[in-house]
Amino acid sequence: MCRHIAYVGPAVPLGEVLVEPAHGLYRQSWAPRRQRYGTVNADGFGVGWYADGDPVPARYRRAGPIWADLSFADLARVVRTGALVAAVRDATLAGADAEAAAAPYCAGRWLFSHNGAVGGWPGSLARLAARLPAEELLSLEARNDSALVWALVLHRLRDGDEPAQALADTVLDVAAAAPGSRLNLLLGDGETIAATAWGDTLWYLTGPGAGPGRARTVVASEPYDDDPGWREVPDRTVLAATRTDVLLTPLKEPPA
């Protein structure tokens, strides 16, 4: 379920990453090429981006399909950024959270997205949720599995964990508590990207951006074009990336 993408590199219009590519996130909302679960990503979308000189990202999220939002089309044409996280949400059961359930979630400089599902939700994560301070539980943006997974990640970040480590340890905890979960997590801070491949597809692209020598990295659920530079991330892997480097580290299955 869902498709998501993160970008760090030269400042470009949002649409250059999300709309203009032949198989970009915009098109993935109704015609994904590699989505294994679900078919139409029409239950919300969101994009978070960074402006020069401001470490706190802006967000635009809606409960409906991305193709029906003309305001987003205007934003994507004129808003420029050197870093973003965006997602389209798979059609799912009706809920009261509306756009609050749409990624990316945000806290401080962080933007977060979850592509997947937690098995046995919500009972499977009751013990993990009980470890969080009451204030953090009461601050959840939505009442779904992704929002709680984000709270678990954020708790580790606030305790000083590096981004990739916070994602990896959260995935292992959730996978142990809820076997069979799909936990492709994506985290950005305006300078770096961290992600996990756990149960669904994840790809990355590096190389020059808009201009010679202007490095950029894209991490996405699936390639947005047919550039031969796209590389698939093996399942059970954590990724840590900057504009110029990508590091892949295998993750071990949690004990049975």
UniProtKB/TrEMBL annotation:
Entry keywords, A to Z: Glutamine amidotransferase, Hydrolase
Keyword Transport among UniProt keywords: no
CDD domains: YafJ (cd01908)
Catalytic reaction(s) noted: gamma-L-glutamyl-hercynylcysteine S-oxide + H2O = S-(hercyn-2-yl)-L-cysteine S-oxide + L-glutamate
Domain of life: Bacteria
Statement: the UniProt record of this protein carries the keyword Amino-acid biosynthesis: no
Pfam families: GATase_4
EC number(s) per entry: 3.5.1.118
InterPro entries xref list: EgtC (IPR017808), EgtC-like (IPR026869), EgtC_Actinobacteria (IPR032889), Gamma-glu_amide_hydrolase (IPR052373), GATase_2_dom (IPR017932), Ntn_hydrolases_N (IPR029055)
Glutamine amidotransferase type-2 domain residues: 2-256
Pathway, per record: Amino-acid biosynthesis; ergothioneine biosynthesis
Function according to Swiss-Prot or TrEMBL: Catalyzes the hydrolysis of the gamma-glutamyl amide bond of hercynyl-gamma-L-glutamyl-L-cysteine sulfoxide to produce hercynylcysteine sulfoxide, a step in the biosynthesis pathway of ergothioneine.
Name used for this protein in its record: Gamma-glutamyl-hercynylcysteine sulfoxide hydrolase
Originating organism: Streptomyces ficellus
Lineage, opening ranks: Bacteria, Bacillati, Actinomycetota, Actinomycetes, Kitasatosporales
